[in-house]
## 1
Amino acid sequence: MARQTADQHLETLYAQARNEPDPQVKASRIRMAEHYYKFRLEQKLGRSIHMAGISSNVKMGKIEPWDGDLNPKDLLIDADDVGDIQQNQILTALEKRGICQLRITAQSADDYVIKAVAKLIGPLTRRQNDFKKDVVKLIVPKAAGVANSGDTLADLGLHVDGTQHTETPCILMFHYVSAAKLGATSVFVDTARALLDIKADRRQQILVNLARSDAATFSKKKMVHTGPIFYFSPTGRLVGRIRFDSVIGLHPECIDDFNYLLRKFNDSKYRLEFKPREGDIIIFDNWRVLHARDEVFGKKVRQHWRGWVSNLKPAFQPDYFLGIRPIPAAIAAKIEAANKR
């Protein structure tokens, strides 16, 4: 019998895990496949890494990619209060779909609601762009508001938050205090789903090219950051630092690939659109899920608090995979090499 290559052996391990009927044996085979995968990736990268859900297989990546056909009701977590049960529900939802909608019965509209939820997930950042606060005050859009920010009544293009920072925040939380009568519909797009629908060779080309260290420059509110659009976080998760507005400036060699993503991500097929209720808290993976909002109309405008979570608590990081997945090991190695160029 011909000797298997490393990739063939890995695929055999995955196949054995998928086809194993016994739950305990199946779990053991999954751990074996993950261990071997991590070992191979460490060989390619030349360093030790955390097992970050990097996988050529969607199920092994513990992810459920979605598009605009997702029913917003599937995101809802109803709760009388917030404790261990909701913590597990939130973390599982973030891992699978990268987004959930928390609705707490009769909660107040104060900033400590976000702070209380963050205690279950991970630490709030101490700064949000030019705001030196862990929770930004009520964001009230107005006609004279700053363009490309929540302060404006105009449409907001798809983007992730914190693009001007060296490390973009892992998780975003929006607590909606009041809703506009017209407009202000929230829009979300799953980067993982959109990328998976691109042919493998083209997807690899885009990911690696846009991972170069000077791929884009982000300029907003006197903050400027130049860096890769796709990069690995310190915890080994693949981050998408993407925005489709005037904040981003591109390296000339990245423009074609970026415009390809612009057309892809703005396809109505991928846009999940709904209007959160007053009191709802939307929690989503900022490394994976892009968000936007359409124009706000009428005298009553949307108001919300905003919190950024830098990363999951260390105790949760080995068990819950976030960021863009699945990514084969060979592509992960090329992305990381591009990050250093």
## 2
Amino acid sequence: MCKLTCTLAYEQTSIRANEHMTDKFIFRFVTGISIFVFIVVVILNRKIIPVTIETPSFVYFLPKLNAMINATCSILLLISFNQIRKKNIAMHKKLNITTFILSSLFLVSYILFHYFVKETTYGGEGVIRYVYYTILITHIILAAAVLPLILLSFHRGLQMQVEKHRKLVKFAFPIWLYVTVTGVIVYLMISPYYTF
């Protein structure tokens, strides 16, 4: 009996140790990806690597595409939230994976546009200017902050670690939704000042 109890205790300790190692690895991996993405965005957005080729014509359509992607992501996130409240886990997963793919496409499109095209200055004056920059700055900061939360939430959700997933999503969902909605607002506010 003692041998069986000791064996079970050892196995449970071993499982916990493996979970801890896996959690550590995932956290480091997510941190690495998030830092890498941030550095790439800064390097290309600030044109640290200079543009040496002519701007492709499709690049000028990208801000509109980005706004459409953000609007679609906002809708998908809300539908996904509704589906999980109905306990439709399969649909919730599909919608979130689709939203993540679209958000990744948005990131590539955003980087391409800002790499090739000179930055547009917002032309509004008075209170609306402060509103625009408040929305823009919070959008940028939260867009950078939400990536690791999304990646960790995905990991927990796909591993069916429901409680850990819920704790992360309490922060990830509203931030992600805010970023997608404000992405559309920023586009609508800045687009009249595009000069291309």
## 3
Amino acid sequence: MTARPDTLTGELAEFLVGLPPTLDDRLLELAGRYTLDTLGCIVFGADQPWSRAAATHALTTGGDGRSAVIGAESSTTPAMAAFANGAAAHAFELDDVHEEAISHPGAVVVPAALAVAEETGATVDELLIAIAVGYEAMGRAGIAVGPASHMLGGFHPTSMSGVFGAAAAVAILLGFDAAQLTAAFGIAASLASGTMEFAASGGMAKRIHAGRAAEGGTTAALLVANGLEGAADGLAGRYGFCRVFTSEPHTELLTEGLGGRWMLDEITIKPYAACSDIHPMIQAAQELRFEHDLSADTIDRIEAFGPTKAATQNSLDGTASVMAAQYSAQWNIAAAIVADPRDPATYAAERIAAPELAALQDRVVSVEASPQFDATYAWKMGGGVRITLTSGEVLERQVHGQKGSMHDPLMPEDVLAKFQALTAGRPALDGLAAAAVGRAARSRSGT
């Protein structure tokens, strides 16, 4: 294969394959922190019914291999282990986010990298380097596709741009050169898929989107390893990913600021098991609850404000399903007043239609788009609530840059505490995953 550094895809690939010898300790520490968070999400998510369905599919169709399906005490081929573990990572809306790209990189990149690292016998540091490269590739693809128009056009960014993150991570573990990674990107562009229809008519398809992206990117890289050639400009070409799946491409962002702007610096670690676009609303409601000792019987009505995306795709009845509860602005605002969105058990199927929650959800009378939050979407998420009390008093709060985001990050000890809470009472990790957890848990320095 011949390198094509004259294309934006080739230029990005050339930069990425040159990273392993020079990646500094700060970036490795961040990669370790996000790996720790993602592995916690996988352990917790593996027990969900949709994750069990994904694991069963992986184990019955994947064949023999050394890549573990976490929670199943079995192993399979790298691509199918990546699928199952990616589905588990994304199973309960707990996985990390690159806000501007509107995607979940950990749930895609970590499962793909771990699966191939187990197959190849990689070290923890080699795993973390591959993960750092995968985050960079997925984030770059995600911001270059024009994420707001991409998502409002009906595409789910995690499953779409995720294939490039998985392909890059696997490519590093397989020792690819720039030409081979460019080819993998070209193939991955043909494997990108996933729509937002789950936000309109439900179902469980969203739960496998990260897994499908992890599988697709892994497959793309393995095909290149077996000699298959891909397009030379799969990301930015005339019919490349960043032009086909959007009305507002920004292909220049594939390479702008390479080596100065790092996607790893822009990751949100979630404190709530809900769509991150509504986290500012949840935080605003919860702050007012604690400051004013609010309860359901003190509230007459609530108005919510956020970006157009949230007003369009997150305004729904949260009592319909667990997925709906995790996506609904109204439901989560109500939960912030009468329950605890920081506790994943709040979103359990038997609790989402509790009478007090349902009644207060009905008093969230509107979710309106606000120009000020559109102006910074999705680089800096914003939202707020206006609560009118039965006394007539009106309380307002806005949050611009929510807790857990790069604007107000969780500390390393908070991330470890989240991991410990998610994995408590569940089967322990072993092998390379356990080694990665140990490395990350020992690190306490800040970003």
